[in-house]
Amino acid sequence: MSKSEYAIRHGRYRPKRLAMILTLLIPLVAGTAFASTPSSRLQRLEARAARAHLAATDEWHALLHYEPNWMHGGVHSEVASLWFFLAKDGQTDPAAELDATLAGLFSKQPIGPRKLPAYCLFVARRKFLVRKLDIDTSTLPVHDCPGYRHWRAVIAPDAASLVFPTAFPNSPSSMFGHTLLRIDSARRRHGTELLSYAVNFAAAAPQGNRGLGFVWKGLTGGYPGVFGLFPYYKKVKQYAWIENRDVWSYPLNLTQAQLSRLVDHVWEMDSVHFVYYFLNKNCSYQLLSLLDVARPHLHLTRQYNWYAIPSDTIRSLADVPGLMGPAEYRPSMETTLRWETRQLSPAEQTLARKVSRHELAPDAPALNALPAKRRAAVLEVAYDALNYQLSSKEVKAAVPGQAGRDYANHILAVRASIPRRSPFGRVPTPKTSPEDGHRSLRVNVSGVYVDDNFSLGFRIRPAYHDLLDNPGGYTRGAAIDFADIGLRLDPSDGRLRLDNVHLLSITSLSPRNAWFKPVSFTADTGIRRRPSAHVFTNAPNDLGYYLQGGPGLAWGGRDLMVYTFGLGSFDANPGLQPAWALGAGGSAGVLAYPVPGVQLKAEAGWLQYAAGADGHYGWAKFGAQVPLVDNFAFRSTVGYENTRVDDGLRVDFGIQAYF
């Protein structure tokens, strides 16, 4: 018999002492075993993820916004917020970030400005890993996210649409247009899109900072870019009512799983900063990155390394079979009012203007004398005109503030007393929607005749649209040329020289009439010759920098506009004595659209130098463009230029191709 058996038989081990020993030992052993379980489980998950190459999948790269490096192998994330990455080198190492995210699921540690654990903060990442690795979330330390559940319940996503407010030349950040996403609720009924939510990406610039400093910082990455979620009606009010921009929307054919992944990623993007660039890493580019999360195999952002123009990104989506539905058009208040006023007689327009300005009561005898249908039309236009004035930032209302809103309601009440349906139908949808307009990249090959000499001209323009381009799908009277480079080749000796460069040229022609009094403007900067005939000569006034522009007025309609500008100019040119000049003057022109696809433009101008060099610069030009086949057109220009020391006649004629 052993000593222990003897002790037990003879009561040497007391039950209380034995229980005490067991009480101390069992938790210690059990605790050691349980503590090792998460670590070993995490290691097994990491090994499975590595074997499945999850860190190399398109979906993981889309969720972390990885893009290939230009000069060497590997990737980097476009996200600038360091807290977005759980691994120290997560910005450049997808595998390390995946392992760190797995580890984060086993932690309650709060992350980022919202102070949420990884399980609740990176929902789309978590769902990806749970789906691919079959993780039992009930065993994780955090497995419920009340804030996220409430947020999803409020949005109740059911469908998504791409929204395109057209170009707004008065705003540097929206001169090419803008894109955003609309998330429609499952509680939505037909015609209630205004109750949906908008996903927007924009530069986080100080309020009211919209001058040259804003442009410079936007071009050089001086602002952070952030995603935002807003009630959709606020965006419609901003674009269609305040800025008077027509709005196009395109339903996106996404499965519920794809839509859910996109919305989850929007949740992840709250408070995340990117570096914002006007030309490429802008609203359109980043919204493509959201669609890459929904459908990772599309690789939409890889098409736009140098610049991303909203209309081009819409065309990219239109090129994906079955992704976008038919375009839907929402006219701005200005477009609607212009269309309505054209249906009134001059006398009726006068009555409507007087009512809108509170110069005539809505139930005055002059209106009551009209037939009921025409009286209804006059009152509707008067109401819309006053509402337009109250909503617009650029127009001062005749009856401002609350008094104006009360008076508008009074007009509406009088109109409601007339038992007639509205005489106005829906504003006609333009024949060409933005995705069907010409491509923004343009290449031109032409013959150039100057002073009895013939040469070949070559031009390339990355973006975007000038007044002789086909206006279908674009804003009529608005032009923006960016980095338009012209070269000339002398066929006699093979010399190739720079003709001119339009670094940035903007023109906005806004026709005026009795209802609208907008101010047009033009601005142009780049490198040019004085006159442009001096390409293959040794004339001293050869190539120099210029900046010119100014306000103006325009009149007319959709097919014919007449305009005039007051201009100021600055030239820095070695041919000037001294090598610079400040000038002032003006220009006037006519822009015509005689038949669809044909554009004509005639312009003449004069600048008198007022400081620096003595002299002047005058010009007269005529241009025409005629369509040939899809994406090709014939263009010809004839121009005469005059300076104090020289003049020249130039004729260009050639073929343009759009890509």
From TrEMBL:
<feature type="domain" description="DUF7840">
    <location>
        <begin position="432"/>
        <end position="658"/>
    </location>
</feature>
<feature type="domain" description="DUF7843">
    <location>
        <begin position="53"/>
        <end position="131"/>
    </location>
</feature>
<feature type="domain" description="Lnb N-terminal periplasmic">
    <location>
        <begin position="149"/>
        <end position="318"/>
    </location>
</feature>
<dbReference type="Pfam" id="PF25222">
    <property type="entry name" value="DUF7840"/>
</dbReference>
<dbReference type="InterPro" id="IPR057165">
    <property type="entry name" value="DUF7843"/>
</dbReference>
<dbReference type="InterPro" id="IPR057164">
    <property type="entry name" value="DUF7842"/>
</dbReference>
<dbReference type="Pfam" id="PF25224">
    <property type="entry name" value="DUF7842"/>
</dbReference>
<feature type="domain" description="DUF7842">
    <location>
        <begin position="328"/>
        <end position="399"/>
    </location>
</feature>
<dbReference type="InterPro" id="IPR025178">
    <property type="entry name" value="Lnb_N"/>
</dbReference>
<dbReference type="InterPro" id="IPR057162">
    <property type="entry name" value="DUF7840"/>
</dbReference>
<dbReference type="Pfam" id="PF25225">
    <property type="entry name" value="DUF7843"/>
</dbReference>
<dbReference type="Pfam" id="PF13387">
    <property type="entry name" value="Lnb_N"/>
</dbReference>
<protein>
    <submittedName>
        <fullName>Uncharacterized protein</fullName>
    </submittedName>
</protein>
